[in-house]
Write a structure and sequence with these properties.
Two copies of one chain form a homodimer. Helices cover 65% and strands 4% of the residues of chain A. The first copy, chain A, has helices at 14-27, 39-46, 50-62, 81-105, 108-122, 135-149, 155-174, 185-197, 201-221, 223-228; strands at residues 36-37, 66-69, 73-76. In chain A, strand 2 and strand 3 (73-76) form a beta hairpin. By secondary structure, chain A is mainly alpha-helical. Chain A has a three-stranded antiparallel sheet. In chain A, helix 1 (14-27) crosses helix 3, helix 4 (81-105) packs antiparallel against helix 9 (201-221) and helix 5 (108-122) runs antiparallel to helix 6 (135-149). Chain A has two domains: 14-76, Orthogonal Bundle (Arc Repressor Mutant, subunit A); 81-228, GntR ligand-binding domain-like (Four Helix Bundle (Hemerythrin (Met), subunit A), Up-down Bundle), CATH 1.20.120.530. Chain A is built from ten helices and three strands. At the A-B interface, helix 3, helix 4 and helix 7 of A face helix 3, helix 4 and helix 7 of B. The first copy, chain A, binds a DNA duplex through residues 13-15, 38-40, 48-52, 54, 70-74.
DNA sequence: AAGATAGATATTTTCGAAAATCAATAATAA
DNA sequence: TTATTATTGATTTTCGAAAATATCTATCTT
C-alpha cells in the first residue's frame, strides 16, 4: 500500500485543475463578462499549455460560462438583463422541482441535516465588518441550500441545478451593490427550512421562488451593473 | 464578394465537425454504450488529429453522452434502467414546461406551423417496408415536436430540452424492438397538437407526459436491451 | 497456488511548433 | 474621397512527438 494520500493537486489532470480555476475566476467575477480569453495570456497566468486550456474552455463553453466564436476565440459569457431573467425562470422551476422531490424522498437523516445546516447558517453573520459577504457565511449558505435538495435522487436534475447555481452566483458576486442591500436572509431561510421540514412542498415551492426572485430584484436595482455592466 | 457559398465542411472547425459526427454515431448507436474510445482508433476512423478529438469528446462528456475517467480515457456513456427512468422524469418536466410556455407566448404563426408539421407527419408512415423507422418520418417527427415548443422563448429551457432529446433518441434507436411495437403514433400526436392549438396547457401537459412514458415502456418491454444491454 | 513485485507495453495527457484563419493597415483604383 | 485589394501581424486551430500514467505479463516470494 503506497498511496501518497492524495494531497490534491495530483491524481487530477491539468485540464481538470485549470477547469476548476477558470470556473472559479469567472464565477468570482475576476474574469470580467465579455472579456476575451487569449491563449498566450492564459498560458502565462495559469501556467499550463494549450491542450488543457482548450479542453477546460470547451467544457466551460458547454456550460455557457464562456462562449466560443469559431476562429475568433473564447470570451467570458456576457451578462444581460434578459439572460438574468431567463436564469431566474429556470432556477425557479428547477430548484422548486428539486425541493419537491427531496421532500417526497427525504428520510429522518436528511431532515436532521437540514436542521443542522440552517443552525450553522444562523450562527454566522452574512457580512464582515468591512461590509462584504463573509466567505464562511457563503459556504454555509451554499451548504444550506444544498442540504434542502440532498434527498433529491435525480442526477440530471441536480446537475442542471448545479450549473444554474454557478451562473446565479456569478451575477450575485458581480453585483457589488448586493452586499449593501440589508437583506434579511435569515428569516427567509428559516421560513424555507420550516416549510421543508414540515414537508409542505407547495409552501416551500412558493418560498423558494420568492427567495430567488428577491435576489434578482436586488441585483437589478443596483447601480453598479446598471451603468455599463449589462449587454442590454 | 468572394464567399464560396458555404458548401459546408468548411467555416466549421474540425472540432465542430468531428463533434457532430461523434454525437451522431453515439445517438445512432453506431458507437455502442460503454465502448471505449481509443484515440488511435478514432484518429483512424474520423481522420483527424488528437486536438479536435479531445475537444469534441470533452464537449460530449459535458453533455453526458460520453464519460471521462481520468488517465483511463473516454467511453460511450453506458445505458441503464435507472438512467432511462431519470431521463424520463426530466423529459416529462422539461418538455411539459416548454410546451406550457409556448402555449402562453405563441402567436398565430406558431399555431400555423404546428398545424403544418402535424399534417406533414400524418402524410408519412413511420415504418418502411422493411419494418424499420423511416428516416424521413423521423425528421418530420422531430420537426413536429420542435414546432410545439418553438414559441418557448427560454434559451436555457430549449438547450436542456435538446440535450435530453439526444439522450432519449439514443435509447429509442438502441431498442430495435421499438420499431416492431405497432404503436399508433398518429393518434397520440394528433391529440397532442389539438390540445396545444386549443391552448389547453393542462391537457397538453398530461398528453406529453403519457407520450414520453409510453416510449419508455416500450423500450423497457423489449427483449433486445433486456439481455445484455443495460448496466443494471 | 495465491499474492505481491517489477518490467514491458499500451494509452492518455501535455507540450511546442506548424498551418490556417482572422484583423488591421497600407496601397491602389474608381 | 471612397471603396477595393494586398500585405502584414496577431491569434486560433491543428498536428506530431515527448512525458506521464495505467495496464498487462512474467517473475518472485510466502
Amino acid at each position: 500500500m503506497t498511496m501518497p494520500l492524495r494531497s490534491d493537486g495530483d491524481g487530477k489532470t491539468l485540464m481538470a485543475s485549470v477547469y476548476d480555476r477558470l470556473r472559479g475566476d469567472i464565477v468570482d467575477g475576476e474574469l470580467r463578462p465579455g472579456a476575451r480569453l487569449r491563449f498566450d495570456e492564459l498560458k502565462e497566468s495559469y501556467g499550463v499549455g494549450l491542450s488543457p486550456l482548450r479542453e477546460a474552455l470547451t467544457r466551460l463553453a458547454a456550460e455557457k460560462l464562456v462562449i466560443l466564436e469559431e476562429h475568433k476565440g473564447f470570451r467570458v459569457a456576457p451578462i444581460s438583463r434578459s439572460d438574468l431573467n431567463d436564469l431566474l425562470f429556470m432556477r425557479q422551476e428547477i430548484e422548486s422541482l428539486a425541493i419537491r422531490r427531496a421532500i417526497e424522498r427525504g428520510d429522518d437523516q436528511w431532515e436532521s441535516a437540514v436542521v443542522a445546516t440552517i443552525h450553522a447558517l444562523g450562527k454566522r453573520d452574512s457580512l464582515t465588518e468591512g461590509g462584504h459577504i463573509d466567505p464562511e457565511w457563503e459556504r454555509r449558505h451554499r451548504a444550506f441550500h444544498d442540504s434542502l435538495v440532498a434527498a433529491c435522487d435525480s442526477p440530471r436534475l441536480l446537475l442542471y441545478r448545479q450549473q444554474l447555481t454557478d451562473h446565479a452566483d456569478r451575477y450575485r458576486k458581480l453585483s457589488h451593490h448586493y452586499s449593501s442591500s440589508g437583506r434579511d436572509h435569515l428569516s427567509e431561510h428559516c421560513a424555507l427550512s420550516d416549510a421543508v421540514i414540515a414537508r409542505d412542498a407547495d409552501l416551500a415551492n412558493q418560498l423558494i421562488r420568492k427567495h430567488l426572485l428577491r435576489t434578482v430584484e436586488i441585483i437589478l436595482s443596483g447601480e453598479d451593473l446598471q451603468k455599463t455592466g449589462f449587454d442590454d
